[in-house]
Amino acid sequence: MALCLKQVFNKDKTFRPRKKFEPGTQRFELYKKAQASLKSGLDLKAVVQLPPGESINDWIAVHVVDFFNRINLIYGTMSEYCTEKSCPIMSGGLKYEYRWQDDSKYKKPTKLSAPQYMCMLMDWIEMLINNEDIFPTRIGVPFPKQFQQVCTKILTRLFRVFVHVYIHHFDSIINMGAEAHVNTCYKHFYYFIREFSLIDHRELEPLKQVCHKQG
């Protein structure tokens, strides 16, 4: 029997501190609404739909931050199984290899181990979601024109964490009793990116069989 989420995932092992929404803000209210829908047992395809009257950018922002927190928690918990020795290349099986580029330290796509890639990824996302020019939190401050483009890049890279975990570490997830929770998180993520066409379909190829199971 799968354990509850708090038992399965040790919050001390998250790669980064959780990004929280400020109480009283619209983003916080949207987050509560999204979480309430999740807990209500509604169909995940319905849960991801934009609520009437809400801003699509706010809705996307809330989910990007939430997915960052949840995927960070999943990877942080099983990171002891993902080492320089076990995963010298950030990959998804033999066919897919992911190289890191961030326009600062790594200006060209660079081959990294999976743990290095994950560390760079979480640092990079944390920097973006804490940047007020990209993820504004003050009332009346608009989102930048490239906001959804930035979110597509974030979500595309977060998807690669699922690819690596499913293909290389799913036995560990099963042994931890976390399979159901990881599957639910993935389904939620998958339906969300499909609802708003946020990831190129070619990026989904490594988990095509899993995607087909989600419908």
UniProtKB/TrEMBL annotation:
InterPro entries: MOB_kinase_act_fam, MOB_kinase_act_sf. Transmembrane segments: none annotated. SUPFAM superfamilies: Mob1/phocein (SSF101152). Zn(2+) binds at C82, C87, H164, H169. It holds the Pfam family Mob1_phocein. It comes from the Eukaryota. Keywords: Metal-binding, Zinc. This is MOB kinase activator 3C.
